[in-house]
Amino acid sequence: MPMAKNHRSDRPSSDTASRPSPGTILDRLASGPSRAARITHTEHLPPREGRHAVWPDRIRSEVIAAVQTAGIEHPWAHQARAAEHALDGESVIVATGTASGKSLAYLAPVLTALLDGSEAPNGRGATALYLAPTKALAADQRRSVKELSQSLGNAVRPAVYDGDTPFEEREWVRQYANYVLTNPDMLHRGILPSHPRWSSFLRSLRYVVIDECHTYRGVFGSHVAQVLRRLRRLCARYGASPVFLLASATAAEPSVAARRLTGLPVVEVADDASPRGELVFALWEPPLTELHGEKGAPVRRTATAETADLLTDLTVQGMRSIAFVRSRRGAELISVIAQERLAEVDRSLARRVAAYRGGYLPEERRALERALHSGELLGLAATTALELGVDVSGLDAVVIAGYPGTRASLWQQAGRAGRSGQGALAILVARDDPLDTFLVHHPEALFDQPVESTVLDPDNPYVLAPHLCAAASEIPLTEDDLELFGPATAGLLPQLEAAKLLRRRTKAWHWTRRERAADLTDIRGEGGSPVQVVEAGTGRLLGTVDAGAAHTTVHEGAIHLHQGRTYLVHKLDLEDSVALVEEANPPYSTVARDTTSISVLETDVEVPWGKGRLCYGSVEVTNQVVSFLRRRVITGEVLGETKLDLPPRTLRTRAVWWTVTEDQLDAARINPEILGGALHAAEHASIGMLPLFATCDRWDIGGVSVPLHPDTLLPTVFVYDGHPGGAGFAERAFHTARTWLTATRQAIASCECDAGCPSCIQSPKCGNGNDPLHKRGAVRLLTELLRAAPED
């Protein structure tokens, strides 16, 4: 993020001064009686004055001069403190708000080290490594570094090294770049396995920057934690001990999370001294329609359609804005709808709105990023690929289509607006979903609560095992490495020997196979090769879909959106990982249906809740996509269902589950006719509410409810992590179960519908078509269960 835009003086430019206030923009959007009623709450965050400091005297004068040339006379207090720790050789995490200048906090000491190294009489001099969770952020950071270091000559040589880097450039990066910008995936697959070719770079490595580190949670975060331990091990082999500099949006216990991620003690700098413009944050609930969905439930207007309207209106007003959407398909749909409506107003405006998501080809992403930076685009419908730190300063508004899963992510997205210091507008548009409905009517859950603790588990054996193999292939493992990789290592090594993946010779474990050990795992937790989406008539590659999502998104008959065009999937070839599509224009979208069964493998903890039980342990989940629904795009009306023949998939993971007894059912007035529906409704609502208590998304978790489960021999509700080996979400649910299930009961009971709807107990991912469900039974069942629940 270019520092000049984040840290210029607090005086608004003439352009900023001429813009309407965020309150005025919101008033225009809400004009009309039906629109005004959709705003359930408006939060006003007042502006904040900044607190300056002076740079530590060890920061090079050339660096300070370059920063001042960029328009930054003095650093904020937190920037100076973070730089001081870095210069002292202490790993540090800067956990301050969006647009608070975290980049400069770590760049000042990094550039100083690179300048010092350039004057070394022999050798390459100091190097630094920058890790970003997305390619877009790494490319954006390189632009920032180049701008800032123009006056520093050839002393600073930044270069991006990722999957998009042409092969002819890669050798130059290895030999000459001293500030390499990459992502954890490339570090895992490309740099660490080829460490002899990177020996000069690693031997001189002074700093490792980990940007947006709050995104490294769950299975992905656990994988990244082990990749960083492999990096530290190789650096030590080459005689280096780099300092880690981490940047994060405001997070709970940032130093604790940073230590789990890096395996090192990390100092915390969390007192944000940067100024902030006024933020107006509106909660927006789409209205009920005259339509009825499954089981006759009332249907609200979709968040997709509502967000497309808001993006259209903002563009007509000339406001620069981003609509953040949870899915790739949603981003495409919103941009298409907005373009069509803008064309009715002014055909030239339609060209100023686009979609941005993962799965695009590299050249498509770069073109969109340039258009966004230049202002050629006024509106963008984007997935979280643009959430993370990419500089889009000057935005007037952010529209968030559905709660993004965590408060940390919500504030990260809202913070994309107003990045030049001016006031900003953020709008959260609720989906027809238990959690979204709860939040827009309980604003205190968003605005009066701290952000969540980051959940990751580096000791997860499904995560640790492949990284031990990768580490052994890089340098044979010895007993000295056991402490570095964690307490579960000693128990896993014999298992890897038995599987003939590792072989012990004298005092070291060696990788035994010809294939690359780094290919044993996909650190994003997606599993398998991405499925290529190919246009059948031309053979043109449109993009890719993650292997884990292929069964639900590119099955035969699925509607696939790409760059505003609609395609119909004619064939999904799972062996060759290819989906063949043809352009089409049907009046519907598709939603996959699946069935799930679960068996208990091991119960780790069991706690009595009266006569019932709350348990946590290991389970095996079997899932199969069996059909898909066709729904009208705008209304969500179901047009029909088509069967599918796809193979089942099994998952060994971690789960929390609770049981109830016959006596509890009698006390709750639950008879056998409604038991299945009450359990099912409670399961759906609890899955929908869990993201409020753990750093997960409802799509990261799954659930099963059974009136008589063969392993517990009781009515049972399971909620499980949707990743091999678990991701820490179910464990968090176990430890906060009373609070979590109390909120679940409240969300169901307070919903204004009669028999259940998507705002309380119906689920968009239910494999059984939301049948059976019993709203009142779920409330009575949870009330009885919670009666004897111990405190969390």
TrEMBL record:
Q: What is this protein called?
A: Helicase
Q: Which GO terms describe its biological process?
A: interstrand cross-link repair; nucleotide-excision repair
The superkingdom of the source organism is Bacteria
Q: Which keywords accompany this UniProt record?
A: ATP-binding, Helicase, Hydrolase, Nucleotide-binding
InterPro entries the record matches: DEAD/DEAH_box_helicase_dom, Helicase_ATP-bd, Helicase_C-like, Helicase_put_actinobac, HRQ1_WHD, MZB, P-loop_NTPase
Q: Give all residue intervals belonging to the Helicase ATP-binding domain.
A: 83-269
Q: Show the Gene3D superfamilies listed in the entry.
A: P-loop containing nucleotide triphosphate hydrolases (3.40.50.300)
Q: Does Phosphoprotein appear among the keywords? A: no
Q: Which segments constitute the Helicase C-terminal domain?
A: 306-462
Q: Name one GO molecular function term.
A: 3'-5' DNA helicase activity
Q: What lineage is on file? A: Bacteria, Bacillati, Actinomycetota, Actinomycetes, Kitasatosporales
**This protein's record includes keyword Cytoplasm:** no
Region feature Disordered, mapped onto this chain:
1-26
The UniProt entry, under SMART domains, shows: DEXDc, HELICc
